[in-house]
Design goal:
- By secondary structure, the chain is mainly beta.
- The protein has one domain: TonB-dependent receptor, beta-barrel domain (Maltoporin, Chain A), CATH 2.40.170.20.
- The protein contains 8 helices and 40 strands.
- The longest helix is centred in the first third of the chain and has 21 residues.
- The N and C termini lie far apart (59 Å).
Length: 708
Amino acid sequence: MRKKAKCIILSGCLFLVVTCFCTVSVAQETDVEMSMEQLYSMSLDDLLNVQITTSTLTQKSVIKAPSSMTLITEATIKRTGARNLFEVLDRVVGIDIRYYFNQGLKSPTIRGISTNYSKVKFLRDGHPVNERMWGNHFFNMPLENVKQIEIVRGPGSALFGTDAFLGVINVITLKPEDIDGAAVDVKYGTDDNKMGDFTWGKVYDDVSVGINLNYESADSYGFITNDRIIGSPLAISPGETNYGDRTLHNSSLYLEYKGLSLDVFYHDGEFASFLPTSIFLTEDQSATENKYGYVEAKYDFDVSAALKIRTKASYDNTEYDVVAQAFPNGFFYGIDANGEYLDVNGDGMAEYWPDGLGMNYGYEADQYRAEIMGDYKLMDNNTLLVGLFYEYVETKKNYYYGNAQATSMTYIPYTMFTDDAEIWNVPNDRSVYGFFIQDEWDITEDWYLVVGGRYDEYDDFGSTFNPKCALVWTFDHENSGVMKLIYGTAFKAPVFSQLYHNSSVLQGNPDLDPEELQSYEASIGYVFQDTLQTSLTAFYLQAENLIEPAATPGGWRQFQNVSEIDSYGLELEAKYEFAKNNNLYVGYVYTDAENQITNEKQAYVSEHQFSCGLNLHFLKYLNWNINLDYMGEQPREVGDRREDLDAETIVDTTIRVENYKDWGIDFYFTVHNIFDEEAVSPSTLATFPLNDIPHPGTEYTVGMTFRF
């Protein structure tokens, strides 16, 4: 029955997508886009009424969005000097960005839940970019082609399914009508950080074309003071790490013709991994190469004045490759109670690696998606949104090449393994299908209700349904006075590495259940005298079945549903605009997160997070921005005897010359971490006594943008 239903939904999706592609219809009129000058000059009222789509998949103003919403505009991105997506997110109240340990990736902490496996849905123009092996995304999106970033804090599974556990981050790129010409951006910074970007877009009658090319490279930073010693005296620390090494290429193509659009994106990047430094500092440090790309076709059309149909189909491909040296040259594995080196395989000889323990492993994955949805205006004040979707993902070409078996610590000559019993992650596939429904009802001029839910059917662990309900009361239209009550649930499906990982120290678990979340929110927003925008949000969430590595009777660790977290807190934001383009902004978050299994504070979550900034625009062309981010002390894991992580205060500043003499040229200079504050991402108890991963100290960036 399940297979039959899946086939019906998939066939329906594909049939309608193909039909829509072959249908000729009248092109929809598009809104006139704001010029750069208009964007830089937006008032508080303008910002509150910017149209966003991430909250409901339909256009809504920020103030009316039925969620805790943060909008980051192109002007804000440029004026704060952020160099990449994660720097933008790290300045958002309630979001903390930390390194994903052992892989060199990053993952956000939101509302008291910190994890190596991202529980936030990342979108690029509405297209999901979380990969399925770890659930993270490999590339740190460049910002030069970004129009705005829409951030939803709180569960989003009612519309977006898995990964939208703690929130949704949608990066909206510039379209050809936004660009209407070309722009070149070049910058240079500390650690030989070089970046170049080219953006071009043009509209020719019914045809729109946009291109973006981006390149970045940088050298290493960081220092490791001690290794993780497990019996061997062969430590080569202290020494330099390759933490910051990276060479990244990003490119995209956008085409549109009468409602039919094609979006192509490709990323090719090589960056430092943290695998070797999680054990020892080594002579040949690790590097990860990742290639990721997708092609997405969309077709939107009107059946009638009341019914709009939106369809899309896409293909994603990911290639991931790691070259690593996990232990230094001359490494012996382990020492027994008598001080003798261990004989792991029983051949009478200690396990010895003259060239260190080396490995090369990776995988390739294909992902196919199809979706169709329609929004039907039942009445002037009521709109119904219904969608069907199907997704299939397959990991393949998994391999492991090394001088030790993946499932043991036995020395062997370098060998290529492809057998499922020996490789680091067993190839597998997954199918998902289902539907979502949402009703938006303007009950009166003041009251707005959204009710919806999504059903997902997985072929490996079963089904899940996640509802959402939000009530919005506009109690003062003139001063944007709004109150919101929001309830929602979310889930995160176990990713392939949690299900099928295969090594001597960590095993996957094909019997895992999805992680689950319930969330309650209440918020109030008000604008005083058209100059002071304020908002206060209270939240409470319960997370269950959280997946973590846990010890087994056999002596290894295995992914299991073992953790529960309750978290509550307050989020306060205020922005005071004392003159055009001149403002002061403040944000504060209080979070009380407790692990319900240990009855202790949740590890690596700060109770207090504070940010503030000042933006001054003067002498027509000059803009100066200074931003402070404070993160309070963070507790360690239970059993970790090290002191808690110290509080951190990071101050950045940017001075920018905007559209100098109306020539279309910008110059900018940014100092990151002005006071050279020591900041780190924590090392886990499992990797102790490795010192925490250092973040960069003071860095400088100088750049220029030329639009023509």
